[in-house]
Specification:
The chain is of the alpha/beta class. The chain has 18 helices and 27 strands. The protein is 32% helix and 26% strand. The relative contact order is 0.11. It binds 1-O-phosphono-alpha-D-glucopyranose (G1P) and zinc ion.
Length: 543
């Protein structure tokens, strides 16, 4: 087997976004496109000779092909060993765990998360560092810089490795271990949660429904919920991963997870429902006829953390992304914990967890997790909820209502305008920026504006600064309107408007969030002149 050096030319569109490089499959299929990015990554991440790389993906179309290419490139570039998930499958949190457990140098995760999959849809690749978390900006910038000047890549001339059963292979001097995709992750979950209590809850007739949305969590949910916890087989749905995710959009929210929503709002709905996304890092939690916002979920997990054995010793602190509601801040204040507000994207939590400052982290975008790995973790959140339900012996809705009673309710919603013209989207944010000087002191939606800014974050651990992370209109009463452009899309621009208002009075906790936020929604449209600029009169997705 010999190493072939292939000459290539740079592509000008390989800048990683919020979560790695995401493009249409057709783009990744261009000659040398994937190879350029992988070689640029290898060139940018330092000396890994003889070290271990973890490799796996969400099973979407092009996953298997990409894995074979990456294996041969890893061998040619001097990795000592690659751990690859069986069938090429590793959920994002499982990959993070495998990196940590095996003290790997890093990992490559192949996923475009919840974006649809198939020959005409999306593919993605992301590099995670040795702590198991997404590469920080310094690393992704170095990778990007390398993509702009790359002139050759290295690949081993070898045949494909069989991925479908666990085994050990040689690829040149490199060892390839095809590992069970679920085993290590399941062991980790057993160490954090009271499996006996959850098993007892389920055996007592507490009915659950988990929707894997034809994506990566199918094997994980089946093994853990059905196999280890004894849930009836029909407690899980859409659990065989498909290369096109069954033609769906595996994003666990009320719009895209409608199949589960229908089950949970039916007359004979189970007590608990949950869904995860394409690569298994997101979660949606539902009760019987009840939706838990991700922001509330983070706050509730924090307030009830002691129910789970893995967190019984207490939690160090909580971090949330800036647009996530301040519900968790109230819990942190009551528990005397420190609370951090970071830019959007899980990568900002890594330093805080590594430095022991926080245990729990969350984003409004259906992401919750803890320092057990360095990614958000969908099934972890599901098991955490089940553990709390097993201890508290009450319903999801009752837990949430009691929480609001104690801490107040942060009414919250996010409105997305997808596929908008990029220049128009920029202008929507600029229109708000142009009023930064005049808005403070004005009344908007019946509230006084306190201040406006472009959110900037200084990492307290490494002092790195991230600017322009969202345009904020902050009100005196703690309400907020935030405008941001998505950094994960693959075509056009997506405007996200985040709306939040706080209500302490328990007699006013039963409003629909859209009704409670109606005046704020109107105000957001007016100050940004969104309708005029984009021609849209309604969001594409409301969460
Ligand atoms: C979105 C979410 C963000 C999340 C990211 C990756 O990014 O808003 O919270 O970390 O996906 O799952 P965005 O498209 O807003 O840049
Ligand atoms: Zn995801």
């Amino acid at each position: 087997m010999s190493v072939r050096i292939v000459s290539t030319r740079p592509f000008d569109d390989q800048k990683p976004g919020t979560s790695g490089l995401r493009k249409k499959v057709k783009v990744f299929q261009k000659a040398n496109y994937l190879e350029n990015f992988v070689q640029s990554t290898f060139d940018a991440i330092g000396d890994f000779s003889g070290q271990t790389l973890v490799l796996g993906g969400d099973g979407r179309f092009y996953n298997r092909e990409a894995i074979q290419t990456i294996l041969k490139m890893a061998a040619a570039n001097g990795f000592g060993r690659v751990l690859v998930g069986q069938g090429g499958i590793l959920s994002t949190p499982a990959a993070s765990h495998v990196i940590r457990k095996n003290k790997a140098y890093g990992g490559l995760i192949l996923s475009a998360s919840h974006n649809p999959a198939g020959p005409d849809e999306d593919f993605g690749i992301k590099y995670n560092i040795g702590n198991g978390g997404p590469a920080p900006e310094g690393v992704t910038e170095a990778i990007f810089a390398r993509t702009t000047e790359i002139s050759e890549y290295k690949v081993l001339e070898a045949s494909n490795i069989p991925l479908d059963s666990v085994g050990s292979f040689k690829l040149g001097d490199m060892q390839v271990e095809v590992i069970d995709s679920v085993h290590d992750y399941a062991e980790l979950m057993k160490s954090l949660f009271d499996f006996a209590a959850i098993r007892k809850l389920l055996a007592g007739g507490f009915r659950i429904k988990f929707d894997a949305m034809h994506a990566v969590t199918g094997p994980y949910a089946t093994r853990i919920l059905v196999g280890l916890l004894g849930a009836p087989v029909d407690s899980v749905m859409n659990c065989v991963p498909k290369e096109d995710f069954g033609g769906g959009h595996p994003d666990p929210n009320l719009t895209y997870a409608h199949e589960l929503v229908d089950v949970m709002y039916a007359d004979d709905a189970p007590e608990f429902g949950a869904a995860s996304d394409g690569d298994g890092d997101r979660n949606m939690i539902l009760g019987n006829h009840f939706f838990v916002t991700p922001s509330d979920s983070l706050a509730i997990l924090a307030a009830n953390a002691k129910a789970a054995p893995g967190y019984r010793g207490g939690i160090a602190g909580i971090a949330r992304s800036m647009p996530t509601s301040a519900a968790a801040d109230r819990v942190a204040a009551a528990m005397g914990l420190s609370c951090y507000e970071t830019p959007t994207g899980w990568k900002f939590f890594g330093n805080l967890m590594d430095d022991g400052r926080v245990t729990l982290c969350g984003e409004e975008s259906f992401g919750t997790g803890s320092n057990h790995v360095r990614e958000k973790d969908g099934l972890w959140a599901v098991l955490f909820w089940l553990n709390i339900l097993a201890v508290r012996q009450t319903s999801v809705a009752a837990i949430v209502h009691e929480h609001w009673k104690e801490f107040g309710r942060n009414y919250y919603s996010r409105h997305d305008y997808e596929g908008v013209d990029s220049a128009a989207a920029e202008q929507v944010l600029q229109n708000v920026r142009d009023q930064f000087a005049t808005l403070p002191g004005q009344m908007l939606a019946g509230r006084e504006v306190a201040s406006c800014d472009d959110f900037a974050y200084t990492d307290p651990v490494d002092s790195s600064v991230s600017r322009n992370q969202g345009v904020r209109v902050l009100f005196k009463d703690g309400s907020r309107i935030i405008f941001r452009l998505s950094g994960t899309g693959t075509s056009g621009a997506t405007i996200r408007i985040y709306l939040e208002s706080y209500e302490a009075d328990a007699s006013k906790h039963d409003l629909d969030a859209q009704d409670a936020l109606a005046a704020m929604i109107t105000a957001a449209g007016e100050i940004s002149r969104l309708r005029k600029l984009t021609g849209r009169d309604a969001p594409t997705v409301i969460t």
